[in-house]
Amino acid sequence: RIADADGRLLSEPVEPAAQFGVVRIARDFRRGRTGLGLIGTTTQRALSDERLNGLRRSAQVGGVNWFHQFGRDRYRLTGWLVGSDLRGSPASLLSLQTNAVHRFQRPDADYLTVDSSATSMRGWAGEMYLRKIAGNWTFNVGGGARSPGIDVNEGGYQTYADVYYALGTFGYRSFTPGRWLRSWSANLTLIDGYSFGSESARREADFNGSYVFNNLVEGTYSLQRWMPSISTWELRGGPGLIIPAHNDWNLSLSSNTRRTTVAAVRFRGTHQEETGRLQMTVSPTLTVRPAPRASLTLQPTLVRNSDPAQYVRTQVVNGERTYLMGDLQQRTALLVVRAGYAITKTMSIDVYAQPFASVGDYRALREVVAPRASRFVDRMSTFGPDRAAVDSASRTIRIDRNADGTVDFSIPDPDFAVREFRSNAVLRWEYRPGSTLFLAWSQARDDRSLVPGGGSLSDDARRLFGIVPRNVVQLKVSFWQPY
Fold this sequence. Notes:
By secondary structure, the chain is mainly beta. The chain contains 3 helices and 27 strands. The protein has helices at 90-97, 376-379, 457-465; strands spanning 2-3, 9-10, 18-29, 34-45, 56-70, 75-88, 120-132, 137-146, 163-174, 181-194, 200-213, 218-226, 229-231, 241-243, 246-254, 261-272, 278-291, 294-317, 320-342, 347-368, 380-383, 388-391, 396-399, 409-412, 416-432, 435-447, 470-478. The strands form 4 sheets. It has a 20-stranded antiparallel β-sheet that branches. A 3-stranded antiparallel β-sheet has the order 22-23-24, with no helix packed on it. A two-stranded antiparallel sheet has the order 1-2. β10 and β11 form a beta hairpin.
């Protein structure tokens, strides 16, 4: 029951009666060298109220996975295949076709069609890989695909569709100690992916590996080269946008993890030559085990992100869609705290806490004018002072697209500041071998009303912890019966 502005009490549907189900069956053969599994999920909703017709009436997903080890256990073939069938009203299927996963409305995707009268949608996805898993030399070759209509989100998790790809990884690993290194590995991975419209969606070369020194100091490294590609999701349902070539790198180093005090650090970065985009992340970690039963981990992280082409919003002007990007300067800081204590051999408690802060400042706005132009300056048109003006009172930006002195549209100021605090505690009790009880408590606090430069960190912290938190308590019991 809700009250409108005049105080009248009304009734609004919140959620229909529904049934959700998941079935998983798996069986190993040949003493674990071969396996076959089946999975199915189902969602059924009773949509007796027409105001709930935006939801799908039913969703069925079925899949199979397999593995087979052969060649004296040196090779392994793995794969999976899944299909989905969703049904509902035309309104619910229209929202499904145009959401962030599918984007059938893309104006340059002539192989996709939005059907506003459709009452069902089907799709499929699968992968298959052949791996060499034994010896110094290893490889992994194969590929997969997700059809434009695949959707498992009613009973699972899926972020994208409409892609097929091939992958090849070739590596070498040494287990023979040398003068400096106890062991090391190096791998080269090549990935080539396309949309079902044959648009180059991902072309990547990745060189990575790991190393362990004789004093048991260890780490990992990677260098990725991303070739120019066409992002079909960057403009949130708009045309495909060329993403320039860029490099990613990652380096981690950790002291001997067998000691009571372990220090580690990780560096990550991204650089895009054409646009000057640069993102740098540093994340040190300190883990202390003051007693055999207790551990404490502190992991602060600092991120600096400079992105001249961050998506802002889609604006409709005179019936035409305009895609706005921004020159984002973002700073993020967070701290992860983990603590664990084993009360007895069968009972333990773990605590997690994460304060988080991120501030973003858009220094310029740009309009996408030619998404597939070869140069960045031709793909984007920057709104200078003569075409964009900030209204501080209303926190909006007024845009004059053609600099004729007339405001064509206004958008909310995209600058942001976010403060969050997440924490949880989990009590785990194995009340009999293989059977476990979990009691979990989680708390969340959010403040997204702050603006950049709105106060000191101490003021922000006091404001954040003055907010009424959201508390959730969960109980989970698992029972294992040997046979």
